[in-house]
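Thread: quick sanity check before group meeting

JM: Hey all, I'm pulling together slides for Thursday and realized we never actually wrote out the predicted structure for the chain we discussed last week. Dropping the sequence here so it's in one place. If anyone has concerns about the input, flag it before I start.
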Amino acid sequence: MYYAQLRAFHAVATHGGFTRAADSLGLTQPTLSDQVKRLERDFDVALFTRAKRRVQLTETGQRLFELADAMLDMENRAVELLAETRELRTGNLTIAADAPFHLLQVIGAFRRRYPDVSLAVNIGNSTEVLAQLLDYRADIGVLANTPDDPRLKSIMLRDDPLVAVVPADHAWARRGAVPFTDLLGESLVLREVGSTTRRLIEDEFRRRSQPLPAVIAVEGRESVREAVAAGIGIGFVSEAEFGYDARLAMVRLKDCDLRMREFLVALDARLRTRAVAAFWAEAEGLE
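JM (edit): ok, ran it. Output follows.
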């Protein structure tokens, strides 16, 4: 390749002579002269007309100078972009999460420190989040479990009990807590296959060797809330996600300890990038 020769040629054309050009590049004058001569020799062209103390571009030299000038300008712009990214004055970060609630504090801290980095949050169930991580559509994921994959690193964000959600006028709303066995005979509103809340409930019925009640499957947490509010059945969320809704009441499950854990997860290779490492550091600082 001819990068060094083109840079030497550009310096001579810019400074109008070999001595100042060599000084600007930190080279000796003979080294600089050899680089320019190589271009002229390899392509059998004259790039300069040489006078006593000054050189002038030939017609071919002028055309090459315009190209070399554009090349070095692009190099400078690339270096500026990399420097800005290193200092996080620019960049993009894509997060895939099964729920945004556990991320809000970390996102707030990250945005205050790096306001010029663009963030995008994609919501999906655990299966979808993991798929986005592994095929590089997302830089960071939030999952309710840590996959057994040596390529992935994780830190825990939250650890909360799973609770039942009933309409505010439901008889259970006044009780505050019920045994898990009281769910038998009730209609349950569960999320789609692949969600962690559904897996926890199904696993608990299986562990007790009890039949799973009638299930209405819906997609997403908001759909669960709306279905419960409409009296269709009993839903489930982590206690931290329940929030406030005058239509609904939270009911704890007395005789079981189903936990909703949320982990920040990333490919180990991604943790070497500046934006992902910075977001990870913010999450660790809030533990």
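AS: nice. The chain has a mean pLDDT of 88. The chain has nine helices and twelve strands.
JM: adding both to the slides.
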